């Protein structure tokens, strides 16, 4: 909405983008992301290159002292963390 004249029953505005079909799951997800200002997009090549080659078959290894995979990493599994996948992606097992 760009403006709403005091003497008008209707606001004036311009189209920014379509969020999806009314009542559709994708539109609802998009609306929530926009409403709360969540920035998202496709993962960049540098991030994808850091992912394990096993893909969704990868499991978190046990944390043991001196284990190289944990070097410089912090174990956050005890914390409640929200992860938002980019549209078209899913973290659910297939």
Q: What would you note in describing this structure?
A:
This protein is mainly α and 94 residues long. It is built from two helices and no strands. The radius of gyration is 21 Å and the shape is elongated. The two termini are 41 Å apart. The mean pLDDT is 82.
The assigned structural class equals mainly alpha
Beta-sheet strand percentage? under 5%
Quaternary organisation of the protein chains: single chain
| Individual helix count | 2
Poorly predicted regions are none
What is the averaged pLDDT score?
82
* Largest pleated sheet: none
Count of distinct strands: 0
Q: Supply Rg.
A: 21 Å
- Helix-strand topology string: HH
Distance between the termini: 41 Å
General form: elongated
Helix content: 10-25%
Describe the structure using short key phrases:
mainly alpha; 94 residues
SSE topology:
Elements: H1 25-35, H2 45-50
Summarize the structure.
The protein is an all-alpha fold and 94 residues long. It contains two helices and no strands.
């Amino acid at each position: 909405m760009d403006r709403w004249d005091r003497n008008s029953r209707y606001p004036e505005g311009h189209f920014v983008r379509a969020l999806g079909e009314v009542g559709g799951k994708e539109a609802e997800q998009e609306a929530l992301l926009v409403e709360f200002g969540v920035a998202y997009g496709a993962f960049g090549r540098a991030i994808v290159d850091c992912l394990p080659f096993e893909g969704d078959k990868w499991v978190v290894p046990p944390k043991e002292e001196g284990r190289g995979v944990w070097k410089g990493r912090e174990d956050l599994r005890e914390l409640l963390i929200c992860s938002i996948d980019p549209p078209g992606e899913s973290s659910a097992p297939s």
